[in-house]
Amino acid sequence: MRRPNPTGCAHILKTDADPKVHFAGVRHKVSCLCIQPKESGVFVQRAIAVLDSGVGGLTVVKEIMRQLPGEPVLYFGDTARAPYGPRPSHEVIRFTCEIVDDLLRFRPKMIVVACNTATALALDEIRKRSPHPVVGVIDPGARAAAGRTKSGVIGVIGTEGTIRSGAYQAALRRLSPRVRVVQLACPEFVPLVEAGKFDSPEAYGVVARSLAPLKGCGLDTLILGCTHYPFLARMISEFMGPEVALISSAEEAGREVGAVLRGSGLAAASRGPIMHRFFCSGDPRKFREIARLWLGESCRRTPTLWQVRAVG
Fold it and tell me: Any idea which residues carry the catalytic annotation?
């Protein structure tokens, strides 16, 4: 099977049978990445690879597209195995390593672990495996929160796995030993977002019930310690009130990605043709529906390839 490459370059995207990859209902395997050495006179930018347990990492992708519009994105959402939060550590580490090993075949310029649970449990292992820069989402969010708080009381909401790891607490204490950290697991948030119900009447009830223990804690800064949670940011802000500043780990990670790319000389040198690629391991229709809704025009104005891809 041969079809034109959606980047618009002269390459042909070749496909052949592979039981693990589907596109538009046809099983296939991508065998041309449309990346040419500079000597050929054709150069298509290498992608920033972003991985998450599901759709939550799209909040990081949105920030990358907004802050770095000339950078192509390669995304993998492990929607078939989401959520990662309740899973044991060894399983999260294994799943994350499987995804990274697969993404490395596409020769990305950077790996972004856009899942707080995977960042908390697997970041060190991923840095050992990747020859490229690796960015997580915990340290950027912790730095922003430490610089924002006036009261010295910072709240962190996240999955059971992230809260249990104590990763945010450790990062905040390294930055400001006297800070008081109030942590709360919100296990109902991720399934709500994965189901596409983040803007439903049901969502506000779940938010209010889940965050009730944080009322009266004296916090003035709240870290959204899961990249799914920005989908619920409006409702979280309404419930917590204007005196509580929300820190999005996704937004801060986008800034970190830009800083690392510029510091390592990997930033896109030109605004040439790019193509975004989105993979998911579960229901492609639901994934694409949420992705297009969340990313909006950023996704529609750039050629985009959608695939279902299994790893492991």
Answer: 115, 226
